[in-house]
Amino acid sequence: MSDDCETAIAEAGWGIWHYFVVTLCGLLSLAEASTSLTVPIVAPLIACDFKLSREQATVAVATSSFGMAVGAFLFGSISDTAGRKKLIPITIGIVFCASVSLSFAQTNFLINLSVFVLGLGVAGNNIVLRVYLIESLPMRKKGACLAIIDTFWVFGYLAALGVSWSLMPSIIRMLGRQFRPSSWRVLSALCGVPSLVIACASGLLPSSPRHSLYRRRPRQTLALLQQMYAINNSKHADTYPITDFRNLEGCVRSDDEMDDNSGILMYFKKTWERVHKVYRPPYRRVTLCGTLACLLHFPGFAWLALWNTHVLQEMDHVASGNGTCNVNIQNVALGFLRSCDEVDDARFELLLLVSLGYLLGETLLVIGIDVVGRKSYLVSSGLAGSVASLVLIFRVHHTIRVVVSSMFLAAYAIGRTTTCVLLLENYPTALRGTAMGLTRILPHLAVFMLQFYLWTTCLLSIIVASAALMGAALVMLPVPDLTGLPMKE
Questions:
Q1: How far apart are CA 350 and CA 338, in angstroms?
Q2: What is the domain range of residue 183?
Q3: Distances (CA, A) of 206 to 3, 20, 158, 246, 258
Q4: Which are the contacts of 444, defined by CB distance < 8 A and separation ≥ 6?
Q5: Three-state SS across the chain?
Q6: Cα 102 vs. chain centroid, distance in angstroms?
Q7: 260 within domain boundaries
Q8: Is there a domain that residue 416 lies in?
Q9: Number of folded domains in the chain?
Q10: pLDDT-based confidence at 264, cuts 50/70/90?
């Protein structure tokens, strides 16, 4: 069945229609990334403004991670029922509303509620956007296009980091004043502004052709494919090779119990059935491997870069004869301020430098993931990243440590994006959103728990990071590599 679906999408060609969809999805990913550092950056500022302890400030960061765990599964499962296109503007709109709500929050409860909802929207958008995009692409372009939207994410993350760094000095100067034209509230709202703009533009996205077939809408799907064909090839829609919508009815297995008026009870019933299906053959192995791989990747782009930067700073202090090298999660999450009167400029500078490695990793993926294959990139990135991480153990010059750290983050970006592509390709349309949401629950919960309990040495954390990156690559080896082959249906 998936061969017929791939053929129907391939017959639509490749051109302007796809460039538009990939670019708009990339901008949505960029808008999501612009809020990726909002909570870690504003949390210490909130602590200074409200005279909170570091433990109280950490609660806000942990609450955001818990919101992501809930949002990933919630919106992933809803997308299998309601559709991908409908949820994209909703999730990115939630991101904007939560950012604005945070900027107006006056109590701890409202602050924590805002960051929880922000986590819901960010994780939900991350899942739904990738599921939507892979269902709209021909098989020879899936890997590269998913790497492209992750590249957009990195640009949004770097832009947010630069804007935050530039505003921090003026925000600190305004702390405690009655009239504050520049504060963490302004920064929170600014980070959410791209989400509002892109949420409006996301209405231009067409429906997912695979999900439309799953919802038994072959006539609507044929019209969409004809539109794609006409735009891509500058030909009349009637010349699209498939002329009868009934030829599409067997492409994706539909759900006979699903209808457009499904209520909340039907949603819970169908979600429960989907969860059971992804943990039964033939999907059980993919689910277990994917869940473990995502758990080993658990920090995510922003968190891993924060950890890496913290370790580099600790090593510099030890080299200067100042104490021992330790990793405390509170210092990782709240380290953008040295005190309420001083910005840690070194943290911002190092974070920008090492994060450039993400761009290198995603660029390598765009160039070759659909040519070389997923497994080759996965294993090579695991090996390279593990070796690069272990180099940090030795006494080397600061510049070498920064370069090696960038290489480690590049390998991490390759491994994480490749794992996402492998998982998306190995689930059918009926289960894809739910399965992807399930694989992201444990990583976010792990970060949530570690907010309160993690304290270790730099050496041990480096060894764990090295082993985790290699382990994440190895556990994905049993998952079929569908490079150049149809997705599972």
A1: 15
A2: 3-252+286-477
A3: 22, 11, 29, 21, 21
A4: 65, 66, 68, 69, 72, 119, 123, 298
A5: CHHHHHHHHHHCCCCHHHHHHHHHHHHHHHHHHCCCCHHHHHHHHHHHHHCCCHHHHHHHHHHHHHHHHHHHHHHHHHHHHHCHHHHHHHHHHHHHHHHHHHHHCCCHHHHHHHHHHHHHHHHHHHHHHHHHHHCCCCCCCHHHHHHHHHHHHHHHHHHHHHHHHHHHHHHHHHCCCCCCCCCHHHHHHHHHHHHHHHHHHHHHCCCCHHHHHHCCCHHHHHHHHHHHHHHHHCCCHHHCCCCCHHHHCCCCCCCCCCCCCCCHHHHHHHHHHHHHHHCCCCCHHHHHHHHHHHHHCCCHHHHHHHHHHHHHHHHHHHHCCCCCCEEEHHHHHCCCEEECCEECHHHHHHHHHHHHHHHHHHHHHHHHHHHHCHHHHHHHHHHHHHHHHHHCCCCCCHHHHHHHHHHHHHHHHHHHHHHHHHHHHCCCCCCHHHHHHHHCHHHHHHHHHHHHHCEEEHHHHHHHHHHHHHHHHHHCCCCCCCCCCCCCC
A6: 21
A7: no
A8: yes
A9: 1
A10: confident
Report the candidate in 445, 75, 407 with the shortest Cα–Cα distance to residue 294: 445
Kindly state whether residue 277 falls inside one of the protein's structural domains.
no
**Range from 166-175, 342-351, 354-363, 470-479 carrying the lowest mean pLDDT:** 166-175
What's the pLDDT tens digit per position in 228-247?
999 999 999 889 988 877 77
Tokens (6 digits) for 33: 């990334």
- Residue 156: Cβ within 10 Å count: 23
Q: Is the residue at 442 inside a domain?
A: yes
Closest C-alpha to 104, from 94, 95, 96, 114 = 114
CB distance 186 to 63 below 8 Å = no
Longest dimension (CA), the chain: 76
Q: Is the peptide bond before 486 cis (omega within 30 degrees of 0)?
A: no
Split at pLDDT 50, 70, 90, the class of 179 is very low
Q: Domain containing 206 — which CATH number?
A: 1.20.1250.20
Retrieve residue 410's tokens: 């590049």
The Cα–Cα gap between 318 and 393 comes to 12
- Interior/surface letters 396-413, b for 16+ CB within 10 angstroms, e for the rest: eeeeebbbbbbbbbbbbb
Which residues sit opposite 327 in a β-bridge?
Answer: 456
Strand partners, 455: 328
> What integer pLDDT is reported at residue 175 of this predicted model?
67
Cβ-Cβ contacts under 8 Å for 232 (sequence gap 6 or more):
12, 13, 14, 15, 16, 17, 18
